[in-house]
Design brief:
Two copies of one chain form a homodimer. With about 140 residues, chain A is mainly alpha-helical. Chain A contains six helices and two strands; from the N terminus they run H-H-H-H-E-E-H-H. At the A-B interface, helix 1, helix 2, helix 5 and helix 6 of A face helix 1, helix 2, helix 5 and helix 6 of B. Chain A binds a DNA duplex (30 and 30 nucleotides) through helix 4.
Chain lengths: ~140, ~140
DNA sequence: AATTTAGGTTGTACTATGCAACAAGCAGGA
DNA sequence: TCCTGCTTGTTGCATAGTACAACCTAAATT
């Protein structure tokens, strides 16, 4: 049991350390796209467009927060709004051409940073690490 | 190589997802101690006291940020300052009795949450996951 | 002694965030 | 039809976290 507690303690500590650094690191890498706006824009691309409400629900953010983030992305020309003809309350959000480019570029940078950090890992370890993270996040989502 | 890229992609995605949620989750769990102040206070306890400058260096924060965080913790009665008799510029920071209690309580809560999420993992997987996170963070620190 | 360096604080500005109040559009029932 | 209530989104307000620059004080160096 002591061994097990140690492992849990390390996992807690290291995930926390990572989280603490993540925003600042992301901001340094691509100042034009914060961790949050990057995530939102990526989700729009993934989903081929969605509503602000969907983003808020998915990321547990207040709708006002999403509204302002989207406004900022629109001001930068990274997102466009298309009013749903069937429901005039709804705006379906899409990345613009420019937004998609910026997203791809930031994504490539991020991916390169991860690739560098993981350069000396062998394939089996990478695969197991990825599986563990999936499993962990799945549990976190399940347990709230 | 495709397999390897997939693993890197998943690791990136899942670590990012975790980071996005971390602050809000911490805030919901113990509103009196944010992720940052929790971390700073824990470091003080760990180190049996240290200077504000040390905290700033360790966590890559501006000294003004640390100064204000410490002020807040002091206002709450969680931290006390002891002027170093050998160097009157220096204040060595220590958790107070109350600070230690709050830290222990928040720490227990956090630990419990992690324990719950990891409840159905077997010991070997936990140990490997912990080792992977240590290795990853070590690399991130090394590479900036 | 004069200058430089180190530790901290304070002024200013900006971003992210949530909550509450609001406006506009839709849907269902009296 | 019209009133009520729900959904989508925006805006006003407040707060936290953060950085940068200017500053103060004390120590160290020349």
């Amino acid at each position: 049991m002591a061994q097990r507690d140690d492992s849990v303690g390390i996992i807690q500590q290291e995930l926390t350390a990572f989280a603490r650094r993540a925003r600042a690191t992301a901001a340094r890498m691509h100042p034009e796209l914060s961790l949050v706006s990057y995530t939102l824009l990526a989700h729009l691309e993934d989903q081929k467009g969605c509503r602000a409400t969907d983003l808020a629900a998915h990321y547990l953010l207040d709708k006002s927060t999403v509204s302002r983030q989207i406004s900022a992305l629109e001001r930068l020309g990274f997102v466009e709004r298309r009013v749903d003809p069937d429901d005039h309350r709804v705006q379906v959000l899409h990345p613009t051409e420019l937004g998609a480019q910026v997203l791809a570029s930031a994504g490539a940078q991020r991916r390169q940073a991860f690739t560098d950090r993981l350069a000396d890992w062998d394939d089996a370890d990478l695969e197991r690490f990825a599986a563990y993270l999936l499993r962990y996040n799945e549990a976190q989502q399940r347990l709230g």
